[in-house]
Amino acid sequence: MPRILIVEDDVAIAIALEDDLRLEGHDVEVVRDGESATKRAREAAFDLIVLDVMLPKKDGFDVCRELRRTGIASMILLLTARTAETEKVLGLDLGADDYMTKPYSPKELRARIRALLRRTTRESGEPTTINFGDCEVDFSRGELRRAGRVVPTTPLEFKLLGLMARRAGRVLTRRVLIDEVWGKETAITERVVDNQITNLRKKIEPSPETPRYLRSVRGIGYRFDPDAVTQS
User: Fold this and answer.
1) How much is the pTM?
2) Where are the domains positioned within the chain?
């Protein structure tokens, strides 16, 4: 049974969300402020943390930052009333896996939660291969194959593709991609990321001009289509 921590100071919203998730068979716990959230996330293992941004004592961004710094790997879904693009980018850069803007559709929120929990199951073990369309990423051989034939890739291209495919469904900002693929101390522009994505699309997409797998999230970064991926 998946364990979910709800961090929400609005009592009505917290109760409604708790009831919905319990009806879907989840083990749910609720806390009302940022300090309690940090404490509980360290004390117990949760599959998912539904984290409001505007919280007493410590806001959701600070909670997210602190949990990731201390190695907490639980999926984090941010709930924010802030619609500014920069706020969404900040949350993703801090390590959140997804976000929703208030007011939100309860039906969509439940769907997002189910998608994140599926990813938790897929990521519980490191896959040897990832398949999508007619492509196969073979991590043991360090190869990308398409229709059974090896497609030449640079080490950076393979690392970038592997990272995005393993985190299918998660929006990855350009800053996150630079930090994890090139390294935090590397001084490159975000345009370099865009160029590498363009190169990869030419190698994996049926139609690079209208990408099916490596999708752009305008103003934020990129997302690998989770519905296309199978792992083994």
Assistant:
1) 0.67
2) 3-122, 129-231
* Tokens describing residue 117: 């929990």
pLDDT of residue 155: 86
C-alpha 78: how far from its chain's center?
A: 11
| The amino acid at 100 | M
Distance CA 107, CA 173 (A): 26
pLDDT confidence bin for 203, thresholds 50/70/90: very high
- CATH architecture assigned to 3-122: 3-Layer(aba) Sandwich (3.40)
pLDDT: which is higher, 104 or 210: 210
Burial class (CB in 10 A: 0-12, 13-18, 19+), 100: middle
Dist CA 202 CA 106 (whole Å): 38
CA-to-CA distance for 219 and 222, rounded, in angstroms?
9
Amino acid at 51: L
Residue 60's closest CA among 120, 15, 10, 124? Answer: 10
Which pLDDT value is given to residue 145?
94
Res 219: pLDDT: 86
